[in-house]
Amino acid sequence: MKVAVSNPSVGPHVKQNVIAYFERNKLHKFFTTFFYHPSHKFYSLLSRIKFIEKELRRRQFSSIPINFFENKPILEILRSLSARQLSAKITDLIWYYAELKFDKWVAKTISKKNIDAIHTYEHCALETLKKAKKENIFAIYEQTSVHHKLFKKIIETELIKYPTLITTSLKLALYDKPEKINARKDEEIMLADIVICNSSFTKNSLIIAGVSPSKIAVVPLGFPEVHLNHKKKKDTFIFMYAGNLTFNKGIHILLEVWNELQLPFDKVELHLYGAYFLPEKLKLGLPKNVHFFGNIRHEELMDIYQNSSVFVNPTLADGFGMVITEAMASGLPVIASKNSAAPDLIIHEIDGLLVEAGSKDDLLEKMLWSYNHKDELLQMGLKAKLKAQNYGWPAYRKKLIETIESKLN
């Protein structure tokens, strides 16, 4: 079996999928956009320019030989530049156009003569899947996010409680011409032979939308490498969150809960890492033990996990949530919303704590419990780390291939 993988991104789990096929001698080509490989002379020259070097480092993929790559970088470079300089709406339009162009290019390139299967991803695969269907190429489709119908229902329900917190980016996601994008995604799902999800929550969102359960397979993403160094002891008890600070991530609920926690002011802190996309008024009146750190380098985040007390992920709807696996691999206990991969990763009250999405009372209760049961919390962190050791990226890659081969057979 020879498989082509197509994705405009070279994100961590996309790389793992490509490696999964490569290490089993099944990879034909990886179709992508803008990436960095030491053997690529042009990108090696670009890496000498300081502001480009940072972007290239983020897109580095040198685990497979350069001859396995096929790429079209220009539109993705334009999208990356627009994200820094232009409005969210213009950036979104460039992203949409770039994804369509990428899909058409892949569709023109693939052929049954060279491949038996194509591994695609949501929104950038419609023409590719049509070509696969026409040539009888087995179509693997990865649904990385919650189905749009359930996502919209959850967010709109939450907005009834917090109508003043709607932002431009949220309006874009919910109302600004989403019909065409969502119709495209639904057609992609229909054309796929198998739909891979990274969480049971995503799978259930597809079933609610009418997708046959027999067509769906859940393969949770692997844990990153486990950090073996010991935590530094701190007198301050630190609750932390990392990721975009947005409405759909439930950050407004976390801040509201923090204002109601009856904990010693001088012994607890809330640390928030990531870009802030909520109205500034939410920060008004917050106590001084809440700290916003903005975006930081991933390497720094690994150290921060080590020096925190508990990770809080109150998301309203998330297809996976890689920060959960990162925290657990660092031995950091996690309080996580059930509307994510958390139920697939965490045994409640054994190696972490699960909360109902959108429930302020449930989150408050679990945060209070964490502070008042530090010894039990420490044991949870140790068990979480053990779980991470047993399901790392190699185990994920093995499960992915086995899942696909079982469907093919």
Description:
This protein is of the alpha/beta class and 409 residues long. The chain folds into two domains: 3-222 and 393-408, Glycogen Phosphorylase B (Rossmann fold); 237-390, Rossmann fold (3-Layer(aba) Sandwich). 47% of the residues lie in helices and 14% in strands. It has 17 helices and 13 strands. The protein has helices at residues 12-22, 41-46, 50-58, 74-85, 88-109, 126-135, 148-161, 168-174, 178-191, 200-208, 251-260, 298-306, 322-329, 342-345, 360-372, 374-390, 393-408, and strands at 3-6, 27-32, 69-71, 117-121, 138-143, 194-197, 216-218, 237-242, 268-273, 290-294, 310-313, 334-337, 353-355. The chain has a seven-stranded parallel beta sheet with strand order 3-2-1-4-5-6-7, sandwiched between helices. Strand 4, helix 6 (126-135) and strand 5 (138-143) form a beta-alpha-beta unit. Helix 5 (88-109) packs parallel to helix 6 (126-135) and helix 11 crosses helix 15. The termini are close together. The model has no long low-confidence stretch (mean pLDDT 91).
Task: Pick out its properties.
alpha/beta; Rossmann fold; 2 domains; 17 helices
